[in-house]
Amino acid sequence: xxxxxxxxxxxLEALSAPEVDSDQKITVERFDSTDLTISVWAETxxxxxxxxxxxxxxxxxxxxxxxxxxxxxxxEILGPIPIAELEVRSWVQxxxxxxxxxxxxxxxxxxxxxxxxxxxxxxxxxxxxxxAVHVVDPPLEPRSTGRDGKFGKAWNSGYxxxxxxxxxxxxxxxxxxxxxxxPRPALVLGETLTPLERLFSIADIANGVGSKLDPADWTFLNxxxxxxxxxxxxxxxxxxxxxxxxxxxxxxMCAGVLYDETxxxxxxxxxxxxxxxx
Length: 278
Hints:
By secondary structure, the chain is mainly β. Helices cover about 10% and strands about 40% of the residues. The protein has helices at about 15, 50-60, 195-205, 205-210, and strands at about 5-10, 20, 25-35, 70-75, 85-95, 100-110, 115-125, 165-170, 175-185, 185-190, 220, 225-230, 240-245, 250-260, 265-275.
């Protein structure tokens, strides 16, 4: 098992000069997935967090500009993401000076390639608004008040074993679940995580953090995540406070707040498919 990264670039040129389709203006990179991406639901599929972060990496690097940043990211999980070689394709869907839409897709590689995840992001021009700063959500309790621990008794494999944890309010508690988490591996071998790559390497766990269901009796897979980022996070630790609401027909919604150690940086929402185990 590779213990250094979630993904390995296929060829050194992928790190500095990814292939570009000049006709469609699509940037293409290839990666091999490591066992550190394995999901809690099946050993043959990836957890949603590493692919989300890989898509964000592509969105940040797509036709890069110093005067813009990602402000809202939507990740759609289109099917099981295999532990295998993958291709990332990215392009500018809607160019603009102040606001533009960028898109990235994750594809399988082989005889019958298919898209397994898609990320889209609004990218906005940045200006100085330091005199107008206002934060609605109060800071999360500090890491020093939390405890070390694993993510549930039933989950001890793959991706979840790659994180350091500090639980503030544990999964299944009354009210929102709360924790601090930090990924130990790199996203891509040989690279340092950007602040948003780090945020998205954690964000997808919100569904589990906020669940009130025992995973031994229920499955609750999210099909998507939408993250609004009003401030770029700082530091190595990501805070999550989240809770899942469940309807009467097998559909749930997780909603939460994401933090760095200074305070809130954005909010997350996920659609959840809830099923009782046989």
